[in-house]
Amino acid sequence: MRIHQDQLQVLLVFTKEDSQCNGFRKACEKAGFKCMIAKEPRAALDCFLDKLHDIVIIDHRIPRQMNAEALCRSIKASKFSENTVIVGVVRRVDRDLSVMSFISAGFTRRFTENPSITACYNELLQLEFGEVRSQLKLRACNSVFTALEKSQEAVEITSESHIIQYVNPAFERTMGYQSGELIGKELGEVPINEKKADLLDTINSCIRIGKEWQGVYYSKKKNGDNVQQNVKIIPVVGQGGKIRHYVSIIRVCNGNSETEKTHERVASDSQTDSQTNRRKSSVDIRCVSSRTNEASTQRRHSSLARIHSMNIEAPITKVINIISAAQESTPMPVTEALDRVLEILRTTELYSPQFRARDDDPHATALVGGLLSDGLRKLPKSEYVLGTKTVQQGPSSPVAPTSLQEVPSRIAQAVEDEALWDFDIFELEAVTYNRPLIYLALKTYARFRICEYLNCSETTLRAWLEVIEANYHSDNPYHNSTHAADVLQATAYFLSRERIKEVLEPVDEVAALIAATIHDVDHPGRTNAFLCNSGSKLAILYNDIAVLESHHAALAFQLTVGNDKYNIFKNMERSQYRVLRQGIVDMVLATEMTKHFEHVNRFVTSVTKPLENEELETEASSALLRTPENRTLIKRMMIKCADVSNPCRALELCIEWAARISEEYFSQTDEEKQRNLPVVMPAFDRSTCSIPKAQLSFMDYFITEMFDAWDAFIGLPELMQHLDNNFKYWKGLDDMKLRSLRPPPENP
To answer: Is residue 375 predicted with pLDDT exceeding 70?
Structure first.
């Protein structure tokens, strides 16, 4: 259930209605806010105490006409101002002065004078979706705690060691205790006809698999009497994926209902189904479309089923589901307050899930566990077996093109369709003798006019691309310059979608293309965990945190700025370069798989879900997407999807990529066994591994939800059809109990 949000009230305090005051007044009208104007401090304070405005904007430009800081202190001194946002308008010449006096006076933020309606409107929007919403959260939390205190049901919250940390008044009354008397103590449950240890084993066996426990047991009141209780215990997972608290909702049995006569039981199948439906609704942001073929249905059902067998929900998502369920049986005022709580919680950053895989799915456990671990290992050159295609061997350093016009005809033909999704990167790899990146990048960068933005010559760009590609390891089966070129092509394809072009700025496009080009430079062909286990110097340098991604970004910039011949940034202004560098580094770091679920959850919550609000006008929707925070989330999601887009390629390309990544993982397992290191992904043993199962696990746990969200945002029917087809292909091989890339040839 959703309710209409109260109209925000804004108080403008200006000694005269000049252009700045009128700018904010008209911006309020445009945003649909109720606006009032006061011209002197006493009137402003009286007006605030009467209306309790959400936002107060005070003119701080001419202190001799009005003491803005004194007025701010007066408003803050009122007990009603706790949740009010106060903004001070300053002159342009004062924008570089310290904000300490502002903070001391109680101002929330400072606005440099700009009478433009657009500037004022943008400021109000940022306030609405930032500080005002945070204050609304505090108000809503007060409502929630009030509801908890007034609830007729007894509520107890204990620590993981069952020490009571909170009980509401209903619990104190039920157990006969005075206020605060139970905090820090442990109540002893006394079950009938069985030992306490047996009951605890029953409860723990239920909550260990992520389910609530509900049943009947007896507890002792303060006076020593036993009281029979219907209890629902909800485990709350905290930092590190461990259970940190238990929330118990208790009703004293009086024998009047069948429910109260039910003995201890694990949550029923219907409860599980209900949780599953709530889980599905909390993450399923896909648009309803025509993708209803059998393969699509099978893939999604498999993905949801496998995800439900693992606890990969963020704690905040579980909280949202619990509150949503609680709304069904609460009074209207509480329901409305909880609606606001839900709206605010969906905008926070508490979306880092914990992962526990099933014991009966070793491929998923190995793949997901390996990818969600940090690490890097710098290795000497080794011999690898590439996938199913034989790459043409040629001179190790063919002459680089001096310009796009001088590219050989066979290469020009191979790169001709680079703007299409079904572009064949392996054909380009073959005709360029394993150097596809420089040729693809030259054409792609020309299409996006990168040299013009960087103010660099094509000669410098070409030299830079040469040194970047030279630092990719051509003998890696997977993480080589062909993979970098593939990610670059996918990124360029995404940048060409209309929604992306409407939202991102030119600096974002340049950052995305450069990040895609460098994102795996000097990759050693080993996973992150291998580095930590093998004691690499780089692991020590980067403290085992995002080592691989940090190395890629750092080395790329070292190569670039270390030699003027390669420095594509040398003609940029310093401030412009800093913004571009920040965007590039952020995108490269976003490819770290340990943050995969966090990035996807934040994108869904902050970008796609707000777009589902039919009441949100097009202009407001565009403004929301163009905020720096959301543009960052979009860029991260874009490079993540480009980086792992292999399952969304045409079938033959998908099979080749599967062969290459499998060979790279096999080689790592071989070396781990040879060096007596921990085997990060034991399922990737070349003698026993099922490649179809590995591909299905990767699609289920990483690809399906992410691309469903990305498709809902920019519309990718072609990719989603490939994903369905490829899922069906691998599922068919797995159903035939085959472990290979292809089915056996049919007998003539």
So the answer is: no
Displacement of CA 295 from its chain's centroid (Å): 27
Question: Under DSSP, is residue 171 helix (H, G, I), strand (E, B) or coil?
Answer: helix
Contacts of 133 (CB under 8 A, 6+ apart): 344, 347
CB 533 within 8 A of CB 369: no
Annotation marks residue 479 as catalytic: yes
Residue 9's SS3 state is: strand
Rounded to two decimals, the pTM is 0.55
The position carrying tokens 């420089």 is 438
Q: Which of 46-55, 279-288, 424-433 has the highest mean pLDDT?
A: 424-433
**Helices H / strands E in the chain, number of each:** 33, 11
Which amino acid, residue 519? H
- The pLDDT tens digits of the residues spanning 382-405 come to 333 333 333 333 334 444 554 556
For residue 691, the one-letter residue type is I
Tell me what pLDDT residue 277 has: 40
Backbone angles phi, psi at 88, to 5 degrees: -110, 130
Annotated active-site residue in 479, 519, 599, 722: 479
Single out the residue of 589, 594, 709, 602 nearest to residue 314, CA to CA. 602
pLDDT digits (tens, 9 = 90+) for 333-355: 777 777 777 766 665 445 555 45
pLDDT(304) > 60: no
- Which of the residue ranges 133-137, 222-226, 418-422 has the most confident prediction, judged by mean pLDDT? 418-422
**Could you tell me which residues come within 8 angstroms of residue 580 by beta carbon, excluding any fewer than 6 positions away?**
507, 510, 511, 514, 569, 572
Alpha-carbon 529 to chain mean position: 22
- Work out the number of other CB atoms within 10 angstroms of the CB of residue 582: 13
CA distances 507 to 54, 458, 503, 557, 558, Å, are 35, 19, 12, 17, 21
> Euclidean distance between the first and final Cα of the chain, in Å?
62
Distance CA 98, CA 100 (A): 6
Stronger pLDDT, 349 or 600, i.e. the higher one: 600
